[in-house]
């Protein structure tokens, strides 16, 4: 899968995870079906893997994020930042196809620059660096 396809999948996963926080009654599959005719099947497949993985492992992922965050409770983090972190932690620690930490962190930072606030990229970078160190 090309890097751009993975990036598209991560961005789609972020959008779906964000939406499910506000509309939990809508299934992941319903959100994915909206994009199935406009995006490459590889993108849809990887986004599904990410969203499903994050959803099924949310408690473990949030625990890793919380352990790395001395000053922020996970539920108080910005919704975009929290979900970018969740995708990256899943890819770094829990996916069946683990992504190298530096790649996962770089991808998360680039997505944070695009979707987050002016502080999101440095926040995501710092927190994921701590996760990478085993916190």
Question: What's this model, at a glance?
Answer:
Involved in transcription antitermination. Required for transcription of ribosomal RNA (rRNA) genes. Binds specifically to the boxA antiterminator sequence of the ribosomal RNA (rrn) operons. The chain has 135 residues and is mainly alpha-helical.
Terminal-residue CA separation: 30 Å
Supply Rg.
Answer: 14 Å
Q: What is the CATH third-level topology name?
A: N-utilizing Substance Protein B Homolog, Chain A
Q: Please state the structural category.
A: mainly alpha
Number of strands: 0
Order of helices and strands: HHHHHHH
User: How many structural domains are formed by the residues?
Assistant: 1
Strand count, sense and barrel status of the largest sheet are: none
Helix content: over 70%
The level-1 CATH class: Mainly Alpha
The total of helices stands at: 7
**At CATH's second level, what is the architecture?**
Orthogonal Bundle
> What percentage of the residues does DSSP assign to strands (E)?
under 5%
Keywords: RNA-binding, Transcription, Transcription antitermination, Transcription regulation
InterPro entries: NusB-like_sf (IPR035926), NusB_fam (IPR011605), NusB_RsmB_TIM44 (IPR006027)
Family: Belongs to the NusB family.
Protein name: Transcription antitermination protein NusB
